[in-house]
Amino acid sequence: MTVQRRRLGLAPARKASGTVNPGPILRRRRSPLQLALGGVLVVLILGVEVLILQAYANVNRSTAIFGKVTFLAGALVNVEREALLLNVEVEELPTTLDLRGTQVRRALLGNQLHLADGLGDNDPMVKETLRGVDEDLRVVDQALARAKAKPTEANLRNQVRTMRPAIRDVIVSIKQLYDTKEQEFFGALSGTLRARTSSERLLVGLSGLVLVVGLALALSLRQRVRKDFARAYEALTAEVDERKAAEQALRASEERFRSLVQNSSDVISIVDADGGVRYHSESVRRVLGYDPRDLVDGDPLALVHPDDRERVARFVAEAALRPGVTPAETWRVRHRDGTWLHSETVAANLLEDPNVRGLVLNTRDVSDRKELEEQLVHQAFHDGLTGLANRTLFAERVEHALARSGPGDLAVMFIDLDDFKNVNDSLGHAAGDQLLVAAARRLQGCLRPTDTAARLGGDEFAVLLERVSDAEAAGVVAGRILDMLHKPFGLNGRTIPIKASLGVAVVQPGVVDVDELLRNADVAMYAAKAGGKDRFELFRPDMHADMLQRLELEAELRHATDRGELVLHYQPIVELVSGRITRVEALVRWNHPTRGLLPPPAFIPLAEEQGMIGPIGRWVLLEACQQARRWQDRFPDAPPLAVHVNLSGRQLEEQSLVGEVVQALETSRLVPRLLTLEITETVLMTDIETMSQRLRELKGLGVLLAIDDFGTGYSSLSYLRRFPIDMLKIDKAFVDGIGRGREDTALAHAIINLSHTLQLHTVAEGIERPEQAAHLAALGCQDGQGYHFARPLTPAAMSELLEQTLVDGGFHLPVVVPAVEPAAAT
Amino acid sequence: MERRVRLIAIAVVAALAVAACGGKEDEAPPASKTDVSSPLVVDDGSLAAGEKVSAPAGEVVLTMSGAIGTHNKGKQLQLDLASIEKMRRVRLEAAEPFLKRRVMFEGVLMADLLAVAGVPESASKISMLALDDYKVDFKLADVRSSQMLLATKADGKHMPIDRAGPIRIVFPDASSLGRNPDLWIWSVASMKVA
Question: Does A485 touch chain B (CB under 8 A)?
Answer without folding.
Answer: no
